[in-house]
Design goal:
Blueprint: E1 14-18, H1 25-36, E2 45-49, H2 52-61, E3 68-71, H3 88-93, E4 98-101, H4 104-109, H5 114-126, E5 130-135, H6 139-143, H7 147-158, H8 164-167, E6 171-174, H9 189-207, E7 216-219, H10 227-231, E8 238-241, H11 248-258
Helix pairs in contact: 1-2, 1-11, 7-9
The structure holds 1,3-dihydroxyacetonephosphate.
Keywords: Cytoplasm, Gluconeogenesis, Glycolysis, Isomerase
InterPro entries: Aldolase_TIM (IPR013785), TIM_sf (IPR035990), Triosephosphate_isomerase (IPR000652)
EC number: 5.3.1.1
Amino acid sequence: MSDPATPAPGWPFWVGTSWKMNGLPDDARSYAERIAAVDDWHGVLPFVMPPFTVLADVARLLRDSPVQVGGQNMHWDECGSWTGEISAPMLRQCGATMVELGHSERRRHFGETDQTVNLKVHAALRHGLTPLVCIGETQAERDGGVADLILARQVRLALHGLTAAHVGRVMFAYEPVWAIGEAGRPAPPELVAQAAAGIRQELDRAAGAPGVSPPLLYGGSVNLENAAPYAALAGIDGLFVGRAAWTAEGYAALARAAARPPCRGP
Ligand code: 13P
């Protein structure tokens, strides 16, 4: 039997969505009102990450619900001459409790690096935001046999300079670059399980002990058909969803599909 004070692996289970660059004010409000009205999340921990322009509105509409709200990126500095950027205090004031960092679309198109992710992780924790760090290998890196090395490197550099106690306040999402978006192919669950085991070793090492290391979510072409098989993987603590959760009904249905009994044993 596991110690009752130690949550079973894979529980609590997170189901979150990033809207990416979608969500005009009317649509965002309607989405938020619909998920605010969901009365049973079946035990999952829900979160949404809307664009900055609607974040305050969405957070206000979800204030009395269990759904947490996060930004999709932020700068590491508090304020200053950083045209076009958003800071952690700004996100906090808008009602965000989380922030996504290092998504592969930001790494690929906007110059995000492991070093800037690390600066942002420190800033998020300083300001009471939970960082959700996205990591993942490209197809070429997987074909070249270095996927595990790449993942370990991304984890280590994201957590560089944190105390073991702070490591436990970070969340990770394993998102193979080749599995994400319109051209993505869902990763086979066995591959996700194998990658998750390697990532977990790195997280346990950084946290200083097994069982207290960060939650690890899976993302990349998650949909209603594959949500349950991913959710059943022992090394996965949640799902991070794009397209399939871009309607409130799609998101709520995914949360239902991923829900697992709270007393599930190890
Ligand atoms: P899709 O679910 O659209 O593949 O996007 C996943 C993702 O990038 C979540 O961050």
